[in-house]
Amino acid sequence: MAVTDVKTVLIVDDEEDFCFFVKENLQQLGSYQVLIARDGASGLKMAKDVHPDVILLDIMMPRMNGLEVLKRLKASADTMEIPVLMLTAKNDAQSQQQAAQLYGEDYLAKPIQADFLKTKIEHALSRLGR
Amino acid sequence: MSAGNSSPIQVLLIEDDPGDAQLLRELLAGEKNPSFHVRHVGSLKEGLAHLAVGRVDVVLLDISLPDSTGLPTASRLHQQFPLVPIVVLTGLDDDTVALELVRNGAQDYLVKGHVDGNILSRVMRYAIERKRSEESLRKAYAQLQATQTELVQAEKLAALGRFSSGIAHEVKNPLGVVLGGVEFLERRLSGADSETKVALEKVKESILRADMILQGLLQFARPSQPMVQPVEVKELIEDSLQLLKYKGPLRDIQVEVEAVSAQMVFHAEKNQIQQVLFNLLVNAVEAMPQGGKLTVRTEASAKEICGVEPPLCVIEVADTGNGIAPEDIQRLFEPFFTTKHDQKGIGLGLATSKMIVENHAGKLVIQSQQGKGTRARVILPVRGGNHGSH
Fold this sequence. Notes:
The complex is a heterodimer of chains A (130) and B (390). Chain A has 130 residues and is α/β, with parallel strands linked by helices. Chain A has helices spanning 16-29, 40-50, 66-75, 93-101, 114-127, and strands at residues 7-12, 32-37, 54-57, 84-88, 106-109.
């Protein structure tokens, strides 16, 4: 399979076990290379360095929460074009609204089935012509 | 009510002594502004019959009647006609009796031979006004009690909402890990025996059910105002059906999607409407344990449907399942009412769905015929709306 067919997914989430299973399941389901950042600061750095095709972003993280990460991603020319799917247990209208105002691509609630997550990732990529 | 305006006050005089009755008529005949129109009957039975058919502003009641004597006379009349003021006329001059009469429904107490026209007129006018005030107070108190009950309930729900949102993160994160782990095992054990696969499937169903219960509780305890955005109906239906398939195999259920235009768009909070649609799909599937046909269709309408303002988008989910018993149809949207008797639901799905749809200024309508199936229609205004009702 051509390298260009493999999509890079960056997960930014402090829940180690959750990240492990999302990575394993997505890589089994399709041509994905899944990278993991365990907090907001390393997530921002990895997004700039690697330039993933899509970012899955948790909200409730220590030190820098996901909405702050989203704001900085969209404020930087290097990362503003990367689609960001919020993937979080914090499923309330206010957070959804904030994410939408910051140009988050979608808002997904945990727990989430891997097939459904894959569908959402593909939707986001196709909307942006990736 | 005539007191305070030019119409005569309608008096029902219940007095068995013709002489006493004539004296009272003469006393009242001289009163003007207001004037009094007196209708006289000689027994309690005749008095009750007249009250049942005629307009009476006040009753003058002798408590020594041929068919009723003593305190029960006033209480019996009051029980049957609680809104009519009663002034008791008696030959007795006994404060104890007077107090008992007032406790049993009378507004006042007059002793025969100790009244003139002026006193009689004033007592009756005051009795009418006191009864009116009493009734207003009673209604205000009832309203206050109802409001208090609502406030207590609202505070309970608010407290539940605060507690629920606090635990949601703590519970949903480990649920996410468990679900991810089960799906990981499903793929790693794809060659395993059927019992292993069934076991994993059951675990996954339980996780999703736990999540739906948690979501239902959160949504019901703290309903969120919809964050309106354009929603493509086609994508909404595709995502919902995809989610349905992941919930569990659709054994012997044929799924058909009809008349869904790629251009059909309405404005709503997408996740909430998806929750509604998913809930209806799950109900439809669970209504067909032996298999059947599940149809999803849409329609656009330029006319009002069920009170929802056009232009409209209608999403319909129909099944060919068991249908719903007529006695259950009325209760479908009651919180915690469920027709599922195998622990599959706690009865919040339709109550929450109805609330979500109505928050979008829409309507959720369910029709069903036992043995033939059920049809659920989500009717939404295309331009979006927010009634914020709950």
